[in-house]
TrEMBL record:
Keyword Lipid metabolism annotated: no
Record PANTHER family: ALKANESULFONATE MONOOXYGENASE, ALKANESULFONATE MONOOXYGENASE-RELATED
Keywords, alphabetical: Flavoprotein, FMN, Monooxygenase, Oxidoreductase
Listed name of the protein: LLM class flavin-dependent oxidoreductase
Gene3D superfamilies, alphabetized: Luciferase-like domain (3.20.20.30)
């Protein structure tokens, strides 16, 4: 690995951290067959995020999960600083109602609300709540949803709307956000996702993938944004599942143990084993996994392979220093929002806050102060040194 201390022209000057809030102690390593909320655990988890220095937490949504709006409101009242990100499917909530709910959350949290719009990657999951719109039309609905929602926040007088998916008369003025517009995030790897996200989203989210591939996808999003006449480009959000220990060697021992347990969980419960996934993001992750298990400094794809790429599933493996250096590689490619969530959920959230976030922030502070990169990334080469790959394969049978 060659290293130049100049800051890449693609690098983000800032980085903020996201976690995902868990409602009970069940994990992929040790599943608990319950869908309820363990309130004491949830409070501990959210407090750990606040104490650990995270900036955001994602409240996921599924047809059989807790309601993301209600949970986000709880997060807002249990924290002073964390920004709750509401995962919202347009088929579940009309855009005027979604705007009202989000503005209410924003008022209650004094401007901390964020929304992540999920158009829907699985026909079967969408159908569970009565949504039969074809996948190639769901992003068109999301596009209209964004327009109506933003207008609901800003229109000073009642207005009518008649679009392809929504129609109403005399709505508004709607309930306003706290001070400024609520950021809207979009994710996905389909052409439709890029078209809508590039043209209209404040944030575009990716799962962790090889650096060069991610950079080309960032360029694609930003090119679409520029073509749409935007002067402010979408921020880039990238998600990983780090597996860390005191040394790279110990981290790889843990990684092999974890992947065996996760594979056993998915096999036992028959999770996401219905053939090739429909969504382009999972298909892309599986293609990377088939090509190689290891990429760049610390990206490991076997976790995606054993889960059929069910959600964000690619790992970063190594010591806190190696993983922090790998995160900085993605910051250098343009990521300004980094989501990290573990497999031992609460313990990992605490460890990341103690050992990873400070290292990344220390480097960002150095860059701001000096206009140069420190030698941190060069000092922790990970897979750019031959010993790392040997550790990666040592625990395999």
């Amino acid at each position: 690995m060659s290293f130049d201390d100049s800051i890449p022209t693609t690098a983000s000057p800032e980085v903020e951290f996201i976690s995902l809030s868990h409602l009970n102690p069940s994990t992929e390593l040790a599943p608990i067959p319950a869908r309820g909320i363990d309130l004491a655990y949830f409070r501990r988890y959210v407090r750990a995020l606040e104490d650990g220095g995270y900036d955001y937490t994602l409240l996921p949504y599924g047809s059989g999960t807790a309601d993301s709006f209600v949970v986000a409101s709880a997060v807002g009242q249990l924290t002073e600083r964390i920004r709750p990100i509401v995962a919202l499917r347009p088929n579940t909530t009309p855009p005027t109602v979604g705007a009202q709910k989000l503005a209410t959350l924003d008022q209650l949290t004094e401007g901390r609300a964020v929304v992540h719009l999920i158009s829907g990657g699985s026909d079967a999951e969408q159908a569970r709540q009565g949504d039969y719109l074809p996948k190639n039309r769901r992003y068109a609905r999301t596009s209209e949803y964004i327009d109506v929602m933003r207008r609901s926040w800003t229109e000073p007088a009642p207005f009518d709307h008649e679009g392809e998916f929504y129609k109403f008369d005399g709505f508004g003025p709607g309930f306003a956000p706290y001070e400024s517009p609520i950021p809207i995030s979009i994710g996905g790897q389909s052409d439709e996702a890029f078209a809508v996200g590039g043209a209209k989203a404040d944030i575009f989210s990716f799962w962790g993938e090889p650096l060069a591939d991610l950079r080309s996808e960032i360029d694609r999003v930003h090119d679409i944004a520029r073509a749409a006449g935007r002067t402010t480009l979408p921020r880039i959000w990238v998600t990983f599942r780090p597996i860390i220990a005191r040394t790279d060697a110990l981290a790889w021992e843990k990684a092999h143990e974890y992947v065996a347990k996760v594979a056993a969980t998915f096999t036992k419960f028959g999770i996401n084993r219905q053939g090739e996934p429909q969504n382009a993001g999972s298909q892309r992750a599986l293609a990377f996994a088939e090509r190689s298990e290891l990429y760049d400094r610390a990206l490991w794809t076997k976790t995606a392979a054993v889960t059929n790429a069910a959600g964000a599933s690619t790992a970063l493996v190594g010591s806190p220093e190696t993983v922090a250096a790998a995160i900085l590689d993605y910051v250098d490619q343009g990521a300004s929002l980094v989501s990290i969530r573990g497999y031992d959920t609460l313990a990992d959230a605490v460890d990341y806050g103690k050992y990873i976030l400070p290292l990344v922030r220390q480097e960002i502070a150095h860059r701001r102060a000096t206009g140069r990169r420190s030698g941190f990334q060069a000092q922790h080469p990970g897979n750019y040194a031959p010993e790392y790959a040997q550790l990666a394969t040592a625990g395999q049978s």
